[in-house]
Design goal:
Elements lengths: L8 E6 L6 H11 L3 E3 L2 E3 L13 E3 L2 H9 L3 E7 L3 E6 H9 L3 E5 L2 H7 L8 E7 L3 H9 L6 H15 L7 E4 L5 H16 L1
Parallel strand pairs: 1-7, 1-8, 2-7, 3-4, 8-9
Antiparallel strand pairs: 3-6, 5-6
Length: 195
């Protein structure tokens, strides 16, 4: 399918843990009901909160492997040598062809894979730049159930993501700003892109 036949857009929200991408993504969907959240396929276990069903299709390792072999995914990867995550190709192509506006939280490696696909011209990437040091650690710890090992892993991951932030179309700082201030910048990006 050629990009010219795809009239929709896929807004990608990137940033490390504690960057505010989840909160700002929720606000974006609330203010723009015409934007559809694109769910990921994952092999991780379903958490007790029902909210995870809004973000993921939960499947077994065997089913995920079958989907890989069948070319089902636009992009996929194994995260932290544990669970697989992927973006279904047919759903995205169908929605973009129908002119739909989509949104997905994704990490920088997934974004780099999407840049190699036929939808690369339909991507709008927004990287949320968090505060550094103790403030970022505090935000991550505030999510609950984070031990020192997990905190260290997430902080190291944050550094890797931040080192590649300039690959994205837009950077939005969430450091020292209210959610509303950061969202205002997101809204300006959305309005600019949709003109």
């Amino acid at each position: 399918m050629s990009p010219k036949k795809l009239s929709g857009l896929l807004f990608l929200l990137l940033g490390p843990s504690g960057s505010g991408k989840g909160t700002l993504g929720e606000l974006l969907l609330k203010k723009h009901p015409e934007i559809k959240r694109l769910k990921s396929y994952t092999t991780r276990l379903r958490r007790e909160d029902k909210r995870s069903d809004d973000f993921y299709y939960f499947i077994s390792e065997a089913e995920f492997e079958r989907k890989i072999q069948a070319g089902f995914f636009l992009e996929w990867k194994r995260v932290h040598a544990e669970h697989c995550y992927g973006t279904g190709k047919a759903e995205v192509l169908t929605d973009l062809k129908q002119g739909k506006l989509l949104m997905k939280e994704i990490d920088i490696e997934g974004y780099k894979e999407l840049l190699k696909t036929e939808i690369k011209d339909k991507l709008v990437s927004i990287f949320f730049v968090p505060p550094e040091g103790e403030e970022l650690a505090r935000r991550i710890m505030g999510r609950g159930n984070i031990d020192e090992t997990e905190l260290a892993r997430r902080l190291a991951s944050a550094q890797k993501e931040l080192a590649q932030k300039d690959l994205c179309d837009y950077l939005v700082s969430t450091s020292g700003r209210s959610v509303e201030e950061s969202y205002k910048e997101v809204e300006e990006i959305i309005q600019k892109v949709m003109k």
